[in-house]
């Protein structure tokens, strides 16, 4: 039987309940066999000082431990330098059967930025795109995406058929949490309990991550 694999990439700096709840809701709604959370490599100057890519990865690993079908995927970080999503999808495709379904999850903000991505028109040759509706997303899509949406979007995400080629919107429990907010709370000495899983909180505390250095 064809497998159904989801991919959620992000900086996960740190991973939080907004990411995790979205991932789980999509995995449930679409009966995914696996939802891979894949931390991105970033240029060194854009990394948060004192938080290494390996620590971002470790926090994702802790967050998804035992929470099937969520899994951590270290493929992009193993490559050490930023990789293009289209290349990652190509590599993943090469490991799957031809009829396996691949779903790329994108927040609304990321989706709107698609036209600036490397070889973005090719993405749908490898996957379906699921656009996660974020609470702060009320903007209109850019013009460059209007035709694509008209041609490729389907209204019911669970009706997506075939291995690739369509776009669907997935409505979710709104959780207006961001990693930026979490970094700011920690830098000002405040608690982030219940915004990140307990295991992630314990890791942040044990390693003194995101605290203002003084
Ligand atoms: P930052 O605040 O550092 O920009 P972030 O919280 O937006 O980070 P990312 O790692 O950039 O997190 O996000 C990875 C993916 O998860 C993106 O597609 C983003 O749109 C989505 N996402 C982030 N936060 C939420 C949330 N609260 N609800 C739903 N999706 C989210």
Automatic annotation (TrEMBL):
Annotated EC: 2.7.7.18
Reaction equation(s) it catalyzes: nicotinate beta-D-ribonucleotide + ATP + H(+) = deamido-NAD(+) + diphosphate
Biological or metabolic pathway of the protein: Cofactor biosynthesis; NAD(+) biosynthesis; deamido-NAD(+) from nicotinate D-ribonucleotide: step 1/1
GO molecular function, one term: ATP binding
Pfam family, one: CTP_transf_like
UniProt superkingdom: Bacteria
Enzyme class: transferase
One BP annotation, GO: NAD+ biosynthetic process
Protein family: Belongs to the NadD family.
Function noted in UniProt: Catalyzes the reversible adenylation of nicotinate mononucleotide (NaMN) to nicotinic acid adenine dinucleotide (NaAD).
PANTHER family in the record: NICOTINATE-NUCLEOTIDE ADENYLYLTRANSFERASE-RELATED, PHOSPHOPANTETHEINE ADENYLYLTRANSFERASE
Protein name (record): Probable nicotinate-nucleotide adenylyltransferase
Native source species: Pseudomonas poae
